[in-house]
Every structure is written in structure tokens, then in C-alpha cells.
Design a protein that fits this description.
CATH class of one domain: Mainly Beta
Number of strands: 9
Distance between the termini: 95 Å
CATH topology of one domain: Lipocalin
Largest sheet: 9 strands, antiparallel
Radius of gyration: 27 Å
Low-confidence stretches: 1-38
CATH architecture of one domain: Beta Barrel
Order of helices and strands: HEEEEEEHEEE
């Protein structure tokens, strides 16, 4: 009695043929490309405020904007309260609608009113070195980046 080791039914050896190898080769060749980093050259998406003063993060949160270009709506955080609203834009201009809706948590030590007024003053923007710079005419109001920045260091005298 002669036993065969070629993967015939009844033995526990795996079978391999040229079509199995071709499938493996095709699968490896069609592996998905790595996910690219978030685009920092376009207005849409999530942006985090680059804090300038310690008061920008007094409540412990970094202000955030999530701009949806297709719906012209935004959501985010003021540094204390969640917010949402609408905006209009072109290649260089941006205008936030006055009717920004926010939650109403108390923000001791944080001037949320000044933050919102500054946002509403913005009428221009530029994208530079991966940063979103909101401006009033040619005056820079704030800088935003795709990554959360560390809190500013305050020198204590």
C-alpha cells in the first residue's frame, strides 16, 4: 500500500497549487496604500488654536474648529463651551455667522466673549506652513493647526 503526500482528500496536508499562489501574489500586490497625513493645505477639517497666552487655555481645553466646507457649517469648542454655527468662505475670505450656538457652562478665568468676538471679526484667512491664520483685513487674529499644541509656558517672577 502506497500513500501519497500530495494533498489528496483524507490526509491532513494543505494543498497548494499555482492558482492559490497567484491569489496570494495578487493580494499582496493590491495591498492598500498607507493613509496620508491630514491635509494642511485646505481649509476644511479640524483645527486647534495655537495658544498665545495662558488665558487661552485657562479652563484646560484647547479651542477647536471643525470646518465642513460642503455644508458651510462648523462645530468646535471655545476653550470652555461647545459651539456650532455656519460660515461662508472663498479662496481667501471667511465670515462666521453671528448666530453661533454654544453650551452654557461657567468658565471661571476664561474670557469666552472675547474669543467669540475675535472669531466673528475674521474676514480673511491664509494657509501657511500647515497653519490656518484667521485675519481681520491684514491683521492676524489667531493661528490654528491640525495638532494640539502644548500649553504656553508662563514665566513666574
Amino acid at each position: 500500500m502506497l500513500l501519497s503526500c500530495n494533498g489528496s482528500p483524507g490526509n491532513n496536508l494543505p494543498t497548494t497549487d499555482s492558482t492559490d499562489q497567484a491569489k496570494k501574489d495578487t493580494t499582496l500586490a493590491q495591498a492598500p496604500a498607507p493613509v496620508p497625513e491630514k491635509d494642511t493645505t485646505k481649509l476644511g477639517g479640524v483645527w486647534f488654536l495655537q495658544p498665545v497666552m495662558a488665558s487661552d487655555t485657562a479652563v484646560g481645553k484647547i479651542p477647536r474648529l471643525d470646518l465642513n466646507l460642503s455644508t458651510k457649517r462648523f462645530t468646535g469648542n471655545t476653550g470652555c463651551n461647545n459651539m456650532n454655527g455656519s460660515f461662508d468662505f472663498t479662496d481667501t475670505t471667511i465670515q462666521f455667522n453671528q448666530r453661533i450656538v454654544t453650551t452654557r457652562m461657567a468658565c471661571v478665568g476664561y474670557n469666552e466673549k472675547a474669543f467669540l468676538e475675535n472669531l466673528l471679526r475674521a474676514n480673511n484667512y491664509k494657509l501657511q506652513n500647515g497653519m490656518l491664520i484667521l485675519m481681520f483685513d491684514q491683521t492676524e487674529l489667531s493661528r490654528w493647526t491640525r495638532k494640539v499644541a502644548p500649553k504656553p509656558v508662563v514665566n513666574k517672577a
